Amino acid sequence: MNAALTCTTTPEDSLAVTLTGDWLLDAPLPDIGPVLVRLRESPAPANVCFDASELGDWDTGLVARLVSIRRDAQANNIPVDESGLPDGARQLIALAFAVREREGARRKARDIGFFAGIGEKTQRVAGRSRELLEFVGELMLSFGRLFRGKATYLRSDLVQYIQEAGAEALPIVSLISFLIGMIFAFVGVMQLENFGAGIYTADLVAVAMVREMAPIMTAIIMAGRTGAAYAAQIGTMKVNEEVDALTTLGMDPIDFLVTPRVIALIIMLPMLTLYGSLMGILGGTFVGLSMLDVSIVQYATQTVNSVGLNSLLGGLFKSVVYGSLVAIAGCQQGLACGNSAMAVGESTTRAVVMGIVMIVVSASVLTVIYINLGI
Amino acid sequence: MQGNAGHIVARDITVAYGDFVVQRDLDFTVNRGDVFIIMGGSGCGKSTLLKVMIGLKEPAKGDIFYEDVPFWASGEDEREAMKRKFGTLFQSGALWSSMTLAENIGLALKQYTALSDAEIREVVNYKLMLVGLAGFEDYYPNEISGGMKKRAGLARAMALDPEILFFDEPSAGLDPISARLLDDLILELRDSLGTTVVVVTHELASIFAIGNNSVFLDADAKTQLATGDPKELRDSHPNDTVRAFLRRGAPEADAA
To answer: Which among A164, A175, A182 has a CA at the least distance from the CA of A275?
Structure first.
């Protein structure tokens, strides 16, 4: 039988609520609006009483409704007579009202204006930049301690980070660099053939890979792969209070967690870049030889002559810069992580975004500097 | 509907991680309306047994019967339907950190009932009142204390009016008074809703305050040593290990 509710005013001026049928959560429940309206009307009823003699099965659906009625009645200072209700429901209602609501706990919806919103966001960005600068400062101090032999860290950790950020990244770096080299060669062959200068595809691929593409692509791969992992590792350690545990033992979390990771990336990213350049040139050679009418010796000579030591060192220096940026973004976001699963996700996302933005911005700056220096 | 054999019956359960057997030959019966304690020393497999009961881990052997229906031998769909009658409070609440308390409690209501948003809000408000957290609807789990998380977890476990409530170490990490209040709440819920309660704990105060039936698991024997009312086990069980555990290792003469 469906749940139903009727309310009548008795001759004694009390509001009699009659409950019938099964009041269960999985069936539609009757509207208690009429009761609530009656409670607010004046003259107010002397009290509220219930008749549940026809009530069937019930669960939370009933009790939640009765709690609402009682709360409204209390707000209007109308006594509630619950003697007509089943024992279990009476106990549950009593239990619900046993603990008073804590003063000031309830939150009001915050409504800030458009400009105030912009202001808050701006301040947050300013705060974040400040945090990042502070972090870089801390990292410098930590490097100072490291060189004076005063930093606490585990050699085995460092070796493991180097392995994770180096050898284990080889497959993805190979794949991406090889394909990028091929793409460059395709573009080069298509355009340069028109001028009968197809052989210069070798120069195009070699210079592009060594000077720009290998450093940038490897760095972006590592931002997504290793920077994100750093943020998630350190962030989870923060959530589990592992970072606090280090601090209480007198170990600086930056010395212990951050510096070895930064070192690992600074060492490994140039190596991966070198390897990536080689793979890119191989990819280019593959396309060049199959599309152009040149011999492998010609192509190789052309490639070797096109890349000077300056280009090579310039590219490697870039990758050192990118490596430190990726590691800084990952570790800083990890340490700034809040204390929930959500927060770990947010800082990981932010680490990758920040890493990639910093890579691209510094790439532009470095390219301009290189051009002016004539490298 | 009520089977004669009891609300929950474990038959010949063996739980193992790979080849490593945690507990074997478990046989016990939980009656409707019992507060059933799964007790034993640390590392004896209490929580693993709980996982088997709530469907997170398949037993290596044996089965759990709910109202005479085998749980693990049933099909996926029937198991899902049975699970809907369970409510579980995990050790540290396990609230979803991306949702407010109201959303945490309302999720199951939204999924499995036809209630409107306003009605869900009403039910959520009532559930939070029951656990003494009225007014905290819009808080995120990381903004409240550990004890409050536990109570919010209980409100979530009760969202669908479960027939069976499972508790994993409800008093762990709570001060004695909060632990006592939680115990009282468990009893109140049992009395007013007729819920069957299964509690994993090794807190003696809780065991005697709320338990009227129990199973004692032993890590060395890798099986149950006793089952029954914990007070009777303490006073008259023939096994020394069981008595010593329930007397906190104190010799019998000192114990009340």
So the answer is: A175
